[in-house]
Structure formats: C-alpha cells, structure tokens
C-alpha cells in the first residue's frame, strides 16, 4: 500500500507555494477558473500575458514532470456525454460563483474568507451528491 | 517580463503540486467525494498542505506591497449572494461527475488523452457563455 497521503501533503504544499508566489510577487490570487475565465470572456484582457504565462507553467511543468516522475494516469471517463456535461457545469459554475477549488478553496479558506468557506462547503456537498446519484443510483460513472 | 516569469513559476508549482498530490487522477478526487464507496482521504491532505503556506503568505501581506508593485487584493465583503451558492452547486455537480476541476484539467492536458481535452473544451465553452447566463438569471429573478 503506497502512502498516498504523503504525496498529497507534499503536493499540496507545492500548490500552496505556487499560490504564495503569485500572491507575494504578482499581488494576485491563484484561482485557476478566474485566470482562465478572464481570458475566455475577455474580462481579464489587460492582464492577458500574465495569465498566459501562469497557464503556460501550469500546463508545461506537468508535461515535463510526467515524463520524469512516476507513472501518471488521469483515469478520466471515456463517456463523451458525461465529459461534456461535466465540463459545461464546471465552466459555468466556477464563473458564476467567481471561483473554484484553488481560488475559493485554497486561497479563500487560508485567509478565512467567509465566501471562500461557504463556496467550498457547497461545491463539496454538490460533488458528493453528484457521485452518489451518478455512480450509486444511476450507475453512469 | 519579470511579472511573466513569476507567473510562469507560480503556475508551474501549481501544476507540479497537482501532479505529485494525485489530484490529476480523477479516481482520487471522486474517491474523496464518494463517502458511501471506498473513501480516499488524499484530497483532505492536499487541501491542508496547500492552505498552510498560503495562510503564512496572507499573514506576510499585512503592511506590505507585492514584490512587483501594485497592491494586494482586498478581502471581499462577507456577502453571500445567490450567485455564489448557485455557481458552487453547479460547479460541484460537474466536479463530481468527471473528477476534474479547472486546475487539474489544465495540468493534465499534456498526458490525460482526449477525454481531458473534451472536458477542457466544454469547460471553456461554459466559461464563455457564463456572463450571458448570469445576466439572464438577473433578469429572471432580480436581486433584492
């Protein structure tokens, strides 16, 4: 049995370091949905290149690390309807709520933001319910 | 240029951490959400591990300015609008359905194969239409 929680803790710490760099150097909150969403809907046009640089790091470092480190698998479903529905829900939901797991979760909770804490409670509850319904009741995932 | 370098490093650390922690593996995310199945506690350790350095970083912001100028983002007013709740519920449903949220979806683009790309394109489409849906919601149910 591999101690996955140790990888979780170390990986989590590195995620937090990334957020700390983005906050202390650039003065910005590391929220994946906000950084990407601002590029998609044009609201972050003024800071477009900074956003692109962040996303380049986010995509390229795992590419290099995946080639060097341990065997990496995503195990994503191959049900195309589920993938599209899930992607739409995540895209729409995070932009309406103005944050996701990184912005509301990591950055919000760590500054004891009420909005971040409440958002996190609701997306975790909805996520748990989603798994119960679609896995255990309907059996589609 | 320096701004972009720091942004690249921050994004790189974020992606590396997501990969090492196992958050780019949808089975670990869905395993954590699946309290009635074979529950996987990893995600709680990832959250805890990430919140620790971030909490220190927030403490360091008091009375200072960002290294590259400007100012730190102000703490939002503790106002819980319906958009926060509705959006988070929609997001959570999609998160549970595929086991992917925006950060890990992008971190896994290079090695996750076509399913991650399908999810990513749908997510970007959702982000593109979200402003229209938000104003439609405002017209339908005007805020008090």
Textual characterization of the structure:
The complex is a heterodimer of chains A (141) and B (144). Chain A has 141 residues and is mainly α. In chain A, 73% of the residues lie in helices and 0% in strands. Chain A contains six helices and no strands. The longest helix of chain A has 24 residues, at 114-137. With 144 residues, chain B is an all-alpha fold. Chain B has one domain. In chain B, α2 packs across α4 (82-98). In chain B, 53% of the residues are buried.
Quick structural gist:
The complex is a heterodimer of chains A (141) and B (144). By secondary structure, chain A is mainly α. Chain A has six helices and no strands.
Give the mean pLDDT of chain A. 96
> Any idea how many domains of chain B?
1
Major beta sheet summary of chain B = none
- Stretches of chain B where pLDDT is under 50 for at least 5 consecutive residues are none
Class from helix and strand fractions of chain A: mainly alpha
Which segments of chain A are poorly predicted (pLDDT under 50) over 5 or more consecutive residues? Answer: none
Query: How helical, in percent, are the residues of chain B?
Result: 55-70%
Measured by residues with Cβ under 8 Å of the partner chain's Cβ, the largest interface is: A-B, 106 and 116 residues
